[in-house]
Amino acid sequence: MTDEWLSERARAAEASVGTGFDLSQCVRERIHQLGGVQSHGTLLAVDPASALVDTAAENTAALLGTPADELVGRPVTAVLADADWAEALAASAEADFVAATLPVTAGAPGHRTGFDLSAHRREGLVVLEFEPRDEGDAFRFAGFYQEVRRALRRLRSAGTVDDCCRAAVGEVRRLTGYDRVVAYRFDGADGPGEVVAEDVREGWEPWLGLWFPATDIPPQARRLYEENWIRVIRDVDDPTVRLRPERRPATGTPLDLSGAALRTVSGYHLEYLRNIGVRSSMSVSLLREGRLWGLIACHGAEPRTLAPEVRSACELFGTAFSMQLAAIEERHRADALERSGRDVAAVAGLLEEDVDASLLRHESAVRDLVGADGVLLVRGGRVSSAGLPVPEEVVRALGPYAARAASGGVWSTDRLPELLAADGTGPAPEACPAGVLLLPVGRSGDYLAWVRQERPTPRDWAADPARPVLVGPQGERLTPRGSSAVFRSMIRGRSLPWTARDQAAATEMGRLLTELVLRHADELDQLNDELRMTNLDLDSFAHVAAHDLKEPLRGIANAATFTLEDAAESLDATSVRRLETMRRLAARMDDLLNSLLHYARMGRTGLRREDVALDDVLDAALEVAGPRLAEERVRVVRPQALPRVGADPDRLFEILLNLLVNAAKYAADRPDRTVEVAMEDAVAPGTGRAGPAVVVRDNGIGIPDERQEEVFELFRRLHGPRERGGGTGVGLAVVKRIVERHGGRLWLTSTPGEGTAFYFTLGEEPPGEVGG
Question: Hey, is 326 helix, strand or coil?
Answer without folding.
Answer: helix
